[in-house]
Amino acid sequence: MRIWEEVADMLAVEVNNVVKSFTDKVAVDDLSFSVAQGEMFGLIGPNGAGKTTTIRMMMDILKPDSGEVTILGEKLDEATKDRLGYLPEERGLYKKLKVLDSIVYLASLKGVDRHSAAEKANELLTQTGMLASKNKKIEALSRGMGQIIQFIVTIIHDPQLLILDEPFAGLDPVNTELLKGMLADLRNQGKAVILSTHQMNQVEELCDRILMINNGQGILYGDLREIKARYRGNSVLLDSEGELGEIPGVTDKRTHKDYTELMLDGTTTPQQVLAHLISHGMVINRFEVATPSLNEIFLKEVGKKS
Amino acid sequence: MNKTLLIFRHEFLHMIKRKGFIILTLIVPVLALIGIGVFQLASTDEPPIVETTTIGYVDEAGGFDQYTTQGYVELVRFGTPGDATAALINGDVAEYFVIPSDYLTTGVINRYTMERQLETPPAIATVIKNFLTSNLLTGKVPPDTIELVEKPLSLTVTRLTETGEVATEQGGYGNVIIPAIFGLLLALSLQAASLYMVEGLGDEKESRLIEVLLSSVSPRQLLTGKVLGLGAAGLVQVVVWLASLPLLLNLASSTIGGFFGTIQLPANFLVLGIVYFILGYLLFAALSAGVGAISSSAREGQPLAMIYALLVFVPLWFASLLFIFPNSPIWTVLTIFPITAPIEVMLRLGVAGIAAWELAVSLAVMVLSIIGALALSVKAFRVYLLMYGKRPSWGEIIRNLRSG
After folding, report:
1. Range of the domain at A124
2. Which terminus of chain A faces fewer neighbouring Cβ atoms within 10 Å, N or C?
3. What is the ipTM of this complex?
4. Do B212 and A59 touch (CB under 8 A)?
5. Do A118 and B11 contact (CB within 8 A), yes or no?
6. pTM value surpassing 0.90
């Protein structure tokens, strides 16, 4: 029981003070973060921020100049690689190979025997609605279909940690939803999932915690809700019926299409405003503390640094 | 299964299913069978009819009036060079020659033709020579002696061993033909294998599949599996060729005979053929892995691979010199230099044999080169793995390999 608890407590990823430079620039500069088991973690940042370099160091494809990376409690070695699933940003498979053969070969490199790999592949192809394509050559598939196959390759060996670089790029809405559902299932099974993307809405929808990096440095790190609360402005969004009139503590009103944004002074809380509205018999359809979207936070932070 | 073995298996199966590989493997026995078949068909027909050629001559010395039919050549006598020239211009004779009055003291014959030639065709020279000899000797020696004088020299050579016994290997072209053909095929096969390797790695880099592979295996496992896979495919190829050789030779010797009856395989040829084929494959695969490592795509790597893929042909370019000067030290250098060693060894086995120490040094250098090339390739692979853009300069590569 204790061992199981220890495994459950063990961090899926621990990155400590990692630095990586290339000839012309410092790609990752003293970056530290950790990802827990059963967590969906968002790695976000603008193009060239150092996300992919960070992932490649986690995968042991690149060696850091200094700092330490621990994966599933140990330094990455060949055995640990079998417990990882990696979906690189730019994807490729053997064009001339058949779908099933591709999946089985790449699964066998993750330590799955060919028979089980074929069985699991059939199961996943059925789940993704791609069973009819199993004997087609990869080159005969559309880009989105190829991407689904690559996703199957990433998860077929039942990895404990999944690292997905821009997993939704190029997917149509149907496949995006399919992928999201499968990712949620994996998280519910206790797997750690790292999503690297600049599609903020996906991160907002799926991730528990995030790390935002810019110019190789971490600029925001932690629980997504806490971060958003930190960026919460001093205003409320209100959709009500009837004339608003004068509200104490409200310094300004901005009218939008479906709602009005009430700007509060430094001492008034949203609760006080709500109490005032109710006491005046207002019919309220919507009352919401204004929270910036992750996209707005991203733009603000990245803009500030640059 | 070990991951290196899995990659080995995948690369091996991928290689032997390639059209180019299948064609190169089967073309040797198939072409040989077609050749034997065509010969059989052709030999059952009537011999081709050769047109008779008429050559004129002017006999100023006198006494050259017999033996005017020499094989398919008819000799027609003219009174003066003027008459002969007129006949030549008219097209009545293909050419003519003049036997000057002082021929018996000078031995000089003047030949006139309208063709532009580098030298007198040997067949014509023989006709003229035999015509003159027959006429000079007639009545002085028996006709059989004339015939003997005119026949080309026929030598039967027997090679003896140091103890005076007849050697098992008699040498000659019959001994060199198989190693030479095998050398050429080996060179083609090595060239093709190098290009396949560079192409395979280039494609994996270009399609970024390499990142997926390296998230499962190490660069060493990947490259070792690939090199061994290619080597095994090479082995299949050589086994098909060598296994078909004795059958084809027997068939050729029994149906065609002649030169094919004299063909012999040099001692150790089969063993050394297989050993050098495998080592050659491993070396070229390891070198190509290095080229694949520093190139960002197949298109970029192939010209680089062509440098050593062309060097492999060097022994064949100089093969004619090897036949004339078989003991030059140059051949020792080419035997030891790993890129040229496989082909050079095959050729020398057929021509004059190779000293045991040369073979030992050559094999040792090859094995060390394979290990070195593979180690450097793995290193280069890690350094340049994610370089998808421009190929680095040589200076950069050397610097990076030292520090990396």
Report:
1. 2-224
2. N
3. 0.77
4. no
5. no
6. no
